[in-house]
Amino acid sequence: METGNTQILKPHDEDRIPFILTLLIACLSAVLLLGQMTEPARGAEAGPSDLVKKGRQVFTTAGGVGCAACHGAYAEGDLGIGPYNRGVEEQKIRDALVSVEAMSFLREEMNEAKIKGIAAYYTWLGELQLVKTLAKRGRFIPDRLQIYPGTKVQLVIKNASSFPRKFGGGNMNIGTVKVAGRESLDMVWRAPAKEGSYTLECLDCRIKGQKLTLEISKSAKPHRGVKPAAIAVAAKTPAQPPARRNPEAVQKGRELFRTAGEVGCDACHGNYAEGDVGIGPYNRGFSEKKIRLALDKVEVMKFLKKELSDGQVKQVAEYYGWLGEHKLIKTVAVKGRFFPNIIRVHPGTPVQLVISNQDREPHAYTSRTMGIPPISAGGRERGDAIWTAPAGEGEFVLRCANCGDQFHKLTIEVSKEAEKFRPR
Ligand code: HEC
Ligand code: HEC
Fold it and tell me: Mutate which of 67, 94, 226, 419 to test ligand 1's pocket (most atoms within 8 Å of Cβ)?
């Protein structure tokens, strides 16, 4: 069987994975590759150019937070702040730096060389098909992916555990890679030109023997380096008065959403059912009927059907309904700074405010004017609060209470000019 070609990139979190290990893996892969050279060396990939590497560095560090803080670690737009950026051309980057308010703090720093670097990095990303899997309790979610023969894949393994985990084995020829607790690692792998099955497993998880299978098949969709269809967020039905919810069922539903089948719906649909994991779609406000249909029809969800009683499905549906009645607003917090730091909402909007704490230390975020309890978020965790914007216009401020920074703030502007929220 032909063997795919791998190249390991430096993980985003460099301090967690010793350079020596990366080096070791690179050498190991090289040795393994040499061993496979009997086959015509198809796609003997040269590593990314220095310009691409430079661009990647700017992408993760610009302005002290990196483009990644808003556009996602792999420029896939999965944070719900900045859009999908893979394959975006240089002119668009220049335009965005001039016109996007949230990016204005980067204008001065982004000199010619840095823009060129980012542009090269974006082009390089655009050529790679992004494939993400979450390793949670020894299981891969999803655990089976179809890829068109010959595709260059950027495979991202996210480790849901707080302990480091090793991945390898199988026939992908990637050696052993170590992913730090709660971090992701990405690697480039060229799928062979012939159809076949390639696997990888967690080598030191408590639950053993679960595999990630990459099925190289002509029935997969070829990668075209274009933006995937946007997640369906637009409301199809006009606003309806929110039904009265049973708070206990909402609470139970919220728990089930995080725990069902040991993995939770959140593993695939995102912590707030906003579809930001890149596996399952946006789910807020979806009906009981749609949930039941999905449990019957969606292949990767079938294992959940026997885990949930009829009453539990109703509770999850109640939670979904409740989520649909709240506008989700998200911000990322880095050492007391917020990205974005100004959010506008229409008067009277019920809001679910989510703060993603990027620091390793836990933080509390407080407001003197919003009348909500402090929002606490553990290290690298999220915290959320429910708040209803007042009927009149006004400005509300929230700060990190224990970041040693009273200068930066998050401003919520309640304004009639903000888009009206339509519950769904
Ligand atoms: C504080 C958050 C934030 C940061 C940091 C950020 N962006 Fe953005 N970016 C945005 C938002 C929000 C938009 C969308 C604006 C809109 O659609 O009106 C955007 C839009 C863009 C676009 C336009 C996309 C398109 O399809 O037209 C590009 C390109 C872009 N950003 C590149 C970058 C690069 C490169 C960096 C780092 C040097 C970066 N951004 C950093 C928030 C951010
Ligand atoms: C292993 C990943 C995974 C898990 C876990 C998961 N889902 Fe899904 N779900 C998906 C995928 C993928 C789709 C999209 C399938 C498609 O479009 O063909 C989906 C679709 C759905 C849909 C249909 C969306 C639509 O547009 O009609 C609903 C509703 C849904 N899931 C609810 C849930 C609920 C509730 C749970 C937890 C009890 C859950 N899912 C757990 C992966 C998952």
Answer: 67
